[in-house]
């Protein structure tokens, strides 16, 4: 199914983003592999633990681990081989991964018969959890929390998904609507450097 | 029951403290909401995962999520509306939340037939876990670990609770004893800026 | 059994390393105790949660908590009593703990009928997870990711273990082979300050 391939694609992309951050922090290759693994499966792992759907998904689907291994290796080679000017593709690929993970998290929670508001939360956790873990391990405030429209795009995708589920749309329609909404908002935000206004303290 | 209302109150207060930290770090409103959620339900979530009592508590009690949403929104408005001189109330409210969460964590663990020493640990985890997660996400050493009598107050509450359980006191007595002990020690520590002596290295 | 004693020994050593980091960050004794607990049982706790083997191991084996308490107390006293020149023993003891935890994590996962590649991952998680948690709470990039041959030594131990399991070696042989391989590589790395080359960005 398309969603499975998108899931694998998202896993590979998140692994690559882990390796990139590891490179910025001058880690060694195995450190990079550990960081890539945390980024790629961190969100889904916390989701499965919270839902009690254990062993978590990658324990019996070893494909994820091999994808992370391959993607990390490819990124390490690419880091050393290609000029940094090519890296503008990464945020776009990351947006695709994020939008897919949002839908996957929500659908998985729905299968376990969970209230729809919790499904949205599980989607956001799946989409943002890995990146948050990556940034915490790299000792910086998670990007998700800080500057760009990221969690917001997830939330919008989740709301559209709930709407589609409520009007009893077929699964592929609600999934597609969720993915496209989140993706579109995120891409527009990247392209135009949009962010929400910061919180203000009264002086 | 009183303990349920105190639990909701504690959740709201911890959410507010998450928003305050988000404001200090200049996050956007959705980042603040994510941080508020991690602070308010982080400790209890880890507790439930460790005890294997899954899905974790908020999956089927959506009230918690709405409380977090409301409390965060109210705090964002208050941040922008009120002068910072009013914020001295927050540590006091946080102490109430901490003391309540300590009792709730211990009681929940006891229901699952866990040794009393582990009950204390689960109480401390519930009371301190959310704040630790908040500070880690905001990229600073958790306050709990650093300076004030916080974990110590939890521990004292826990020991009093074990004592009360051992003499077969009614549930409301042991709960109240735990909450009041932890709260009192914490309030005294706040008022008089008490802290334990730091660890020393021999030179 | 020997492995149980090594496990207790590893727990005590990791607790001590938590207290040492707490001392560097000028935490108070209870903060140190919390950090020691996270370091000593953090990796195994995440492993048990991911495997769905809950309640996690220390809930019904309270011995671990007492060992942490004793080891932390002893380390606090030692910090204040002994000159820092004696501390070179700690990395060696930490290597023993790491190698033991690697084997224990892998064996535990194997008992739950998990693919061998996931067993290796669970071993690495058990051996490195606690130290990563410690460093994140102390607000620094985990040492494991950064500089020395640590995860690499775990991985080597894991590969030797898989080899031994595949040729149907007795449990004590595969365990010993895993522990000795990981320990040897780590000790050599400590002695000669070896590390893998850092990731490079093309300029």
From TrEMBL, chains A, B, C:
<comment type="similarity">
    <text>Belongs to the UPF0126 family.</text>
</comment>
<feature type="transmembrane region" description="Helical">
    <location>
        <begin position="58"/>
        <end position="80"/>
    </location>
</feature>
<feature type="transmembrane region" description="Helical">
    <location>
        <begin position="171"/>
        <end position="190"/>
    </location>
</feature>
<keyword id="KW-0812">Transmembrane</keyword>
<keyword id="KW-1003">Cell membrane</keyword>
<feature type="domain" description="Glycine transporter">
    <location>
        <begin position="5"/>
        <end position="78"/>
    </location>
</feature>
<dbReference type="Pfam" id="PF03458">
    <property type="entry name" value="Gly_transporter"/>
</dbReference>
<feature type="transmembrane region" description="Helical">
    <location>
        <begin position="30"/>
        <end position="46"/>
    </location>
</feature>
<keyword id="KW-1133">Transmembrane helix</keyword>
<protein>
    <submittedName>
        <fullName>Trimeric intracellular cation channel family protein</fullName>
    </submittedName>
</protein>
<keyword id="KW-0472">Membrane</keyword>
<feature type="transmembrane region" description="Helical">
    <location>
        <begin position="149"/>
        <end position="165"/>
    </location>
</feature>
<feature type="transmembrane region" description="Helical">
    <location>
        <begin position="6"/>
        <end position="23"/>
    </location>
</feature>
<feature type="transmembrane region" description="Helical">
    <location>
        <begin position="87"/>
        <end position="108"/>
    </location>
</feature>
<dbReference type="InterPro" id="IPR005115">
    <property type="entry name" value="Gly_transporter"/>
</dbReference>
<feature type="transmembrane region" description="Helical">
    <location>
        <begin position="114"/>
        <end position="137"/>
    </location>
</feature>
<feature type="domain" description="Glycine transporter">
    <location>
        <begin position="92"/>
        <end position="164"/>
    </location>
</feature>
